[in-house]
Amino acid sequence: MPELAQNLWESLGLEGQVAARTFLDFNPFAPALGPVRDPKPLFARLDKDLEMKAMEEAATPVTPAAEAAAPALDVPPVKENIDYDTFAKTDLRVGLILEAEEVPKSKKLIKMKVDLGFEQRTILGGIKEAYAPADLVGKRVVVVANLAPRAMMGIESHGMLLAASDNNSKPYLVAPPDDALPGFIVK
Amino acid sequence: MSKPFYLTTPIYYVNDRPHIGHVYTTVLADVIARFRRMLGEEVFFLTGTDEHGQKVEKAAAARGITPKALADEVVTNYYDVFQRMGFTHDRFIRTTDADHREVVQARFRQLLESGDIYKATYKGLYSVSDEAFVTETQAKELQAQGLAHQLVELEEETYNFRLSKYEKPLLDFFAAHPDFVQPEFRFNEVKRFVEGGLQDLSISRTSITWGIPVPGDDKHVVYVWFDALLNYLTGATEGVWPPDLQIVGKDILRFHAVYWPAFLMAMGLELPKTILAHGWWLMGQDKMSKSKGNIVRPDTLLRFGNDGMRFFFMRDMQIGHDREFSFEALMDRLNADLANGLGNLASRSISMLQHYRNGTWCPPMDLISGLPTRPPWPEKMLTRKVAQNGYLAAARQHDFNERRSRWNCGPICAGSMAT
Fold first, then answer.
1. pLDDT number for residue B372
2. CA B347/CA B343 separation, integer angstroms
3. If we measure between CA atoms, which residue out of B45, B14, B39, B2 comes closest to residue B246?
């Protein structure tokens, strides 16, 4: 237990790295060692319920081979009706992902450069659990082009990618066909 | 000065990211390596990745990249996890390393010249998932067990290793080295397998291209197991041969306890001292596997800290046997033994030192005199007992503190803290 041992080592008032020492370094007849320091906790007690919950949340959804039965659909009821004009306020465009990279320290986010035909945008998407950056480059996506810019993890994201999922599934990016040009209006 | 203690893990196949199985094996090796170093011994600890073979070739083709690019990508996961877990290996070998290719080709040529490798036509049942030809008996066993091995009939021109010639020498060696395979019941399985008769072993393939070419005959690549096993030879720095302890999973024991020593005999090299076959962590009685989707990954294990993970693995797994993995059991163990037991003991002992001895202390006499200069393991593989004993020592110290706290003891040093 390298970390715990080092912690205890320091509490006992000893110098250096315990991992670099051997049993032969100890001489019981040597002058007394120390002084000890106020001990730091060696191992924090685990709250089982909290840990189990956190692990369930963190678990990557695994897609077992085809033999697994399709899980039941888990979605909320359909939202109330809106008129066409309300929908038409949303400007959806075809985008082409030019670059993609993981956002450091973020579990979910991928930073992408997306070509919208008339301009290129930086867009962040919470799709890291489902897609590797290298697999995203060259993909066509649907972008909410007039969504107000927003900063996440210190990076400004202008726009949003449409993805399909239910409450349990990973996100599936909505993909226009390969011959749809970047900038095409989706309606 | 004796030679360094040479310790190996298997090399891990790069068709998958690391999971609890890889981590457990490497933790076990790392604990032994660290303990040996604490005893003042020099240790050479080798681990790495196995990167050739059909599964890697196929997985790469499916993604439209070269097998080497796939291996380069997957190996970074291993680097990352092994670094975060603080493993103290001296070399991380990859079977795509240039020096390994040279060793494999040179050893292949050596055996070709000595006649232990010869060219033939082979026809038989081949297990795609194991990348090995199987005997009819093995095929029936596999089918009966319902294991999802895809068996296909395959015929190819092949280089064979004269394994049959080593049946008797292997049995003689086993008889003379009762500790060659641990635990003993696994050794018995190995002996029975060899007593059942050994057929020559095909050690080249024409059906795949992702491998080390057979020297002088490029349409063949060297069989992945001949390639993989020789990593232990490539990785050995001067003066460390032979391996003192080779840790393997029970599923690959046959390769390590039969083929590997036979190869070494043919090469005229000294055999490893001990092959230790450990069991599996099971999830609901099943072996963890990618297709079943029940894999515990390193990130999940590291939630419990490097120390917690190590302690649980060593304390709760009896080496050689299988054990059901459960987060419940893991957390109970860590709370009881580390947070409560050891944690309280340490804080209590240190407060007492501050209170009664102005914060000074001496190493307890019996802890030092009681230390084995040559530990009973890994020869007898008792790490679980050691973890238990270490904990018992802590419990004894705790009792001692309990008693001692009622007395106002004087500042005596040597031996005074002994129980």
1. 52
2. 6
3. B45
The answer to whether A129 and A170 are in contact (CB under 8 A) is: yes
Domain ranges for chain B: 5-278, 305-404
| Residue B373 forms contact with A (CB below 8 Å) | no
ipTM of the complex: 0.78
Number of neighbours of residue A168 by Cβ within 10 angstroms: 11
Nearest residue to B23 via CA among B272, B304, B382: B304
Closest in B300, B306, B339 to A55, CB measured: B300
Inter-chain CB proximity B415 and A34 less than 8 Å: no
Task: Provide the shortest C-alpha distance from residue B364 to chain A (in Å).
Answer: 7
A52 Cβ contact partners less than 8 Å away, ≥ 6 residues apart: B327
Which residues of chain B lie closer than 8 angstroms to A17, CB-CB? none
In the numeric block, the tokens 């989706």 are attached to A186
Distance CA A129, CA B367 (A): 49
Residue B274 distance to chain A (closest CA, Å): 25
Q: Most A CBs within 10 Å: which of B41, B360, B391, as the mutation test of the A interface?
A: B360
Looking at domain B5-278, what is its CATH homologous superfamily?
A: HUPs (3.40.50.620)
- Answer positive or negative: Cα dihedral of B303, B306, B308, B311: positive
Any CB–CB contact under 8 A between B363 and chain A? yes
A57 in contact with chain B, both atoms CB, cutoff 8 A: no
- CA gap B171, B258 in Å, rounded: 10
Domain ranges of chain A: 1-57, 88-186
pLDDT higher than 60, residue B386: no
Minimal-distance CA residue of chain B relative to A50 = B331
Contact B236, B272 (CB under 8 A): no
Nearest CA distance, B258 vs chain A (angstrom): 34
Give, for B233, the enclosing helix (H) or strand (E). helix B231-235
Q: Which residue among A13, A22, A58 places its CB closest to the CB of B38? A: A22
The mean per-residue pLDDT over the stretch B341-360 comes to 88
Q: Answer whether CATH 1.10.10.60 is correct for domain A88-186.
A: no
Spans of chain A, pLDDT less than 50: 62-69
- B45–chain A Cβ distance below 8 A for any pair: no
Residue B90, token pair as written in the block: 């001296």
A40-66 pLDDT per residue, tens? 888 999 999 998 888 877 765 544 433
pLDDT, tens digit, 9 for 90 and up, residues B18-70: 999 999 999 999 998 998 888 788 999 999 999 999 889 988 988 889 999 99
Integer CA distances (angstroms), B10 to B45, B249, B303, in order: 11, 8, 25
Distance CA B325, CA B328 (A): 9
